[in-house]
Amino acid sequence: METGVEEAKPGRPLPIARIVAPRSVAVVGASDDVGKFGGRVIHYLQKHGFPGQILPINPNRATIRGLPAFPRVSAAPIAADVAILAVPASSLEVQVADCAAAGVGACIIITGKLAEAGPEGAALQERVLTIARDAGMRLVGPNCLGIFNPVDRAMLSSSLALEEDEYAPGGIGMASQSGALMGTLLSFGRHHGARFSRCISVGNQADLGLEDFLDYLVQDDATRAVGLYIEGLRDPARFRALLRAAGKPVFIVKAGRSEAGAQAARSHTASFAGAFPAFEAICRDAGAVVLDDPQAMVLACDAAIRLAPLPAAGLGLAPIASSGGSTVTFADMLPAAGLRLATMSAATRAALGRWMPDTHIALPVDTGSFHEGTSGDGLSDCIRAFMADPDVGAVVVPMTTQPDMAGRTALFPPLGREGGKPLLYLMTAGAVGDASRAVMRAADFPFYDRMSDAIAVIRALDAAADGRARHDAPAPDRPVGCGPAPALPIGALTEGEAKRLLAAYGIPTTREVAASTADQAIEAARSIGFPVVLKGVSRVVVHKSDLGLVRLNLRDEAAVRTAFDEVMAALERAAPGAAEGCVVQEMARGEAELFLGATCDAQFGPMVLAGAGGVLVEFLQDVRTAPAPLSPHDARALIEGLRVASVLRGLRGRPAADIAAAAGVLARLSWLVADLGPRLAELDINPLILRAAGQGVIAVDARATLTEETKP
């Protein structure tokens, strides 16, 4: 289906496809002066060859840029598909009403200073929206920069990015909540030879929003990869469903990451489970890729279209060039990006051995060590060997200044296309490399100016490969022995109550006995067996260790008695009148500690978290988030993605920790929060102690908060 030719039907709002590719456009505020918004709109429509009818609207002119002008939209001879309004806010309401009366299908409102400017602007925006809805007329914006549609030569915008002479049609579709940024990205992409299909600036989203245009782009045959710049979502559930059903690569930059987290959080989960971590988690789960650089987003969209896909996530890289400095520098940047050099197969090493000494066969490859010096034949043979190597995911060529750069550059597009894996070409030499860039543009092959850009693209392609595998994975099975949840009070739970909830889902917890006197604490210690742990109990205390309410490794009765008296005194100081005694627990030991959490995000639903545990959880900030429920495989992948994972796998002679058992607990926790949904405000397990591999795990401390059960 080519959505750009969708027909409008009488009595129905104009389809988005006809808004993006209209057959007639009225420009309200049209002018001969390209220094004005309306003047630039007319100029760019003509400059880029709009094939439909252009209707300039200006009460003071008979003609504009050689076209008949009309005093108002309703005086034009036809009802335009789209009216572009670039008028002062003070006259916007009148102009929109005239468009509605004339039967215009949709208005693209460039005019700003509406809802984004305060209450008066918001009231004006609401009045304009009411006029449009009553007439069945759609709105794009206000406060937007319109639509860029190279496929249909419909450049419905005043952006100065359209000063470029030509935007050849291509496959990158974009929707952006920043019009100026979108125009900048088009110009940036054009420099790199990237080509676009349809790009929409959504502005204030008074009517049509980002989700509507995402729906359009994922169905649009001309769009092969989607880029989104998002500041906020109107319909998170629809957004998530669209990502899952996209069937094409989606790359996203989300602004406003710092909105995550409460300033005075009650728990670690409340601190870490903010808006952005949840957003990133649902995107990853749906197979979309979140980046932090809008330009990298455009390059990733382009790479997804013009480069071969990465065969699988986690594969290694093979840098090769005639400069040892460039290849080594590139290789040095990989670990910080979570990437690695490939491990060459015997066949690959043999192929390289035909061109270079055995002592120099290693990644990265400096072709200056070839027996006869760098040659096109040797370079080509090595790249073909890398393309056939099962551990090589992509080949990277960071070219520096050298003789005949353009001639050497011409080797790479054919090698990349025949190899079936991404080949990333870096021209790092500044303006002296422009001839090489021209070769790549002529070959319709991507190139990169900076190593950081190439690394960002590789990370995005790697994440996209992971997303493809995730999308094809079956739904997780419910583990045996998960639930039901016991009846527990609303509000903050004690540690014992939180552990009852965990135990109901098959999560192992420490043995413990409550004690309201020192004698009871001693008797509890005898029954459990020394050494023990003693903790103060109160529903209003969050971080017990910070207040001296946890005493570890108590080895005899005297130590228990002293600890009980001291903890009760500290508890009364911390929570006057709210003390509930103490609890005596077994002293658990292991090889490592993790933090696990669960919450129900207001926008995206049940979430689980995993991170470095113990008292350093907030200091290390090593936490990852995923939507619930999870399979044990995905739970393990989440844990393996932590920075602390290298410690869990064993470090400097220490035994590896039981990551598999920890993943099993995280999977069970994910079913707990999936079952409870909004009833579970937050839950922390900190720490979860991991014993040596094969010996299991145990939840040492836990806290949770339950809310009222929501009504349908």
UniProtKB/TrEMBL annotation:
UniProt keyword list: ATP-binding, Nucleotide-binding, Tricarboxylic acid cycle
Domain (ATP-grasp) ranges: 499-706
A GO BP annotation: tricarboxylic acid cycle
Species: Neoroseomonas lacus
GO molecular function: ATP binding; metal ion binding
Keyword ATP-binding: yes
Source superkingdom: Bacteria
Coiled-coil portions: none
Pfam (any one): Succ_CoA_lig
Name of the protein in question: Acetyl-CoA synthetase
UniProt record similarity statement: In the N-terminal section; belongs to the acetate CoA ligase alpha subunit family.
